[in-house]
Amino acid sequence: MELVLPNFLEKRAQISPAKMAIKTETSSITFEQLFTRSKELAYKIASFGIRKGDYVSIYMENSLNLMELIFALKNIGCITVLHNTRLTVEELTYQVKDSDSKIIITDEEKCSLLQEPWNHSFVYSFSTIDNTVKYEEVPIQHEFNLSDTDTIMYTSGTTGFPKGVKQTYGNHYWSATASALNLGIREDDCWLIAVPLFHISGLSILMRGVIYGMEVVLHTKFDPKKVNKAIRSEKVTIISVVTTMLSKLVDELGEESYPTSFRCMLAGGGPVPLSMLERCHEKNIPVVQTYGMTETCSQIVTLSATDAISKVGSSGKALFPCQLKIVVDGVEQGPNSPGEIVVKGPNVTTGYLHRASFEDGWLYTGDIGYLDDEGFLYVLDRRSDLIISGGENIYPAEIESVLQSHPDVIDSGVTGVEDEKWGEVPNAFVVLKSGAKTTKEDIMNFLYDRLAKYKIPKRIMFVDTLPRNATNKLQRRKLKDLLHQNGAN
Amino acid sequence: MELVLPNFLEKRAQISPAKMAIKTETSSITFEQLFTRSKELAYKIASFGIRKGDYVSIYMENSLNLMELIFALKNIGCITVLHNTRLTVEELTYQVKDSDSKIIITDEEKCSLLQEPWNHSFVYSFSTIDNTVKYEEVPIQHEFNLSDTDTIMYTSGTTGFPKGVKQTYGNHYWSATASALNLGIREDDCWLIAVPLFHISGLSILMRGVIYGMEVVLHTKFDPKKVNKAIRSEKVTIISVVTTMLSKLVDELGEESYPTSFRCMLAGGGPVPLSMLERCHEKNIPVVQTYGMTETCSQIVTLSATDAISKVGSSGKALFPCQLKIVVDGVEQGPNSPGEIVVKGPNVTTGYLHRASFEDGWLYTGDIGYLDDEGFLYVLDRRSDLIISGGENIYPAEIESVLQSHPDVIDSGVTGVEDEKWGEVPNAFVVLKSGAKTTKEDIMNFLYDRLAKYKIPKRIMFVDTLPRNATNKLQRRKLKDLLHQNGAN
What we know:
Two copies of one chain form a homodimer.
Chain A: E1 4-6, H1 8-15, E2 20-23, E3 28-30, H2 31-46, E4 55-59, H3 64-76, E5 79-82, H4 89-99, E6 103-106, H5 108-115, E7 123-125, H6 126-130, E8 143-145, E9 149-155, E10 163-168, H7 169-183, E11 190-193, H8 200-212, E12 215-218, H9 224-233, E13 238-242, H10 243-253, E14 264-268, H11 274-282, E15 287-293, E16 298-303, E17 317-318, E18 323-328, E19 331-332, E20 339-344, E21 363-371, E22 377-381, E23 387-389, E24 392-394, H12 396-403, E25 409-419, E26 423-432, H13 440-448, E27 459-462, H14 476-485
Parallel strand pairs in A: 2-12, 4-5, 4-6, 5-9, 6-7, 11-12, 11-13, 13-14, 14-15, 26-27
Antiparallel strand pairs in A: 1-8, 2-3, 9-10, 15-16, 16-17, 18-19, 18-20, 20-21, 21-22, 23-24, 25-26
Helix pairs in contact in A: 1-2, 2-3, 7-8, 9-10
């Protein structure tokens, strides 16, 4: 028998109708109001011909409207495809086509931009939908089947072609409860979202809010001053950050401190450096480091604040319902022996859209790490083809594939370079056709039209040849040596 | 793909090895020690020929040993059948045979009693197993399949024949997390068990302890003085009680009060009377009322302490992953309309041993109740054939079936009578063969050999005839009238 749960928000509205669900800088809404709104919105969306089982693309910045929309689509029984708003139209087109979305819903400002390549009955601004007087009372989904896909987020892989990660209702529920078994749940908890909702780090907070019956505070953009104010005077108890955000928060905090009610700074996207941990320790800021990815529906490994200093550099242990092993050539490794990080758990995706499911439930992350004698994970290297820049994942193969579509480029290789502000930024090596007159600026302009800004290489270097092995595979690690020869770092 | 989780205790021992798992009056044990012990015990049990998939009967009082044994059997992959220690040998025999258990493990004191009817290679005292020098290293189950049966507890139904309720690993996990979404989880939580582990109220606390990583305090028997001491000076934050226990605790407490760290008195087994709620309210005792049964693997409906007075008499709302409806003749009822209470959720049993599963996941409880306008459940009547006496469920049909096996009895009917000490006690009406010389005392002695003491009717009344309808079905509600005619209450 399939496992079903009641519609998350409808159920939460029944249990805690008057409890505050979401606060933004300008408005606030209870769980009952949120459900009522999401139901009305569902009827409006349905009037545009959207039905259960349809894929719907969303290309919107953080807002209360986006949150309402996310629950409206669940009410109809749609699969919600959340796109990074920093994508170019070309990148977005690929994902929308791949997901076979029936419509795109976007912010007002971006709407005309998108309506140009597509027709008007395919791209709608949120306000067009919200302002419609049409109303089609489709059946509201009162139950969620845990194995049904709820949301999809795209990540790129080694091929350079983005793949849609399927997140089921079960993945979201298990992820929320796994986190609860680790961090606990308190009546007065309030989790601040200052990361994008189109990333799993943001969306998972929203899901926890509804599943726990917990207030969520939404910031449209990350502003250290506003975040510190929310923690210091607006009763925020937990916030999710990436390392670069943490350092900005501590800088902005200056000589001030957080109230004792603030209980967790959940830090993802790579280990926090010891110097930063020591600063946080002095200021009594409880930093809980975590390792996770879109495919694990948020956290899968976490390090408690009490272990932060003694286990510096570690991401912690796998959450209660999750398993982790280190594998080299199919063989599980013992303690202190590095290999590929392989994970399993009910929060782990069953697979990518249009691709076969993982048969035995184990996800090969591509990341390299080891477990110490006590079972703490140390991530040595994110998959060699991954650059993490200000919390965004950048896949070199994707940039290379665009570079190589330029008529004068015959080969290219992209690698990450340390950067004080962003953690890492991409750098590109380009081999031009002999005699080509193309300049670095030409290449940059070519990329600007085709890649999200955060993916644009900070530096382009022309070289005669790239390190490739006998089977012509690019040797990514050797690109780092090439960098040094070219005077970087 | 089946959902699997890591072995609960093994995983907990990896995450929180040094954390206190269980404290009794004489000893204490960490999660790592508990797992090590449960593993050794598994090897010892295996040396008696017990293997994965075997059913093992347990007939033991609350003790640390019993807790270790429960986890040892999970390590092997056995199905654990937990029997009420108040059962007579005859009652136990029925359940053991029905479950097809391979052995019975019992306390030392009860061992010789049980070895009499059975042979010595079928009944073992716990100490015989624990003292063996044999050791068979069977594979430890590192994963639990959530749809596999973990434990079995017997309840009687309308037929008088006890049925084995299957509780899967998933039922236990979902029950624990559903409770967490309601009560929260705090780092300093400590849950006191003063109810039997062979009941779901006790076992579910032990499971929560391991799933949450929470300390559990075990009392062998309920002693109000000791319980109050544990709450007042041993940092207990939550305790599960039935109404009779609650009143004894409040009496014993006298002018004293509980510390503010004490956060939940979880009260099951019928609504708490208003006068008691008011006494608790005055003393700042947070009473959380709950409705649940063996089939729902503990709580399924709860009333928060803040709603206790305004919703007096209510059991509250269905937990987050659970659903509830009121049904009359297959038709779902609206607010304030009474009918049968029907529940669904991932914590609800998939069915009884040797019987078909519930097809659509809805469990018909047999209890009568209604929902108010805000969705709060009011239980009007436990199934008419159920007597709840001091937290134990008594099924009249079971007593009647024993009565009718007496050679001089031609008909019988049992019903519950209010009792100050026990809440309710059974009373029996008996129709004798004409001319029979059997006395009430004879009948009592007959019952004592065949029924657990708590099931023995407090009073036996000889009558000429019983209220039966046209199809000869006993009209239980009319037995109440008969009681009044016979001078009770």
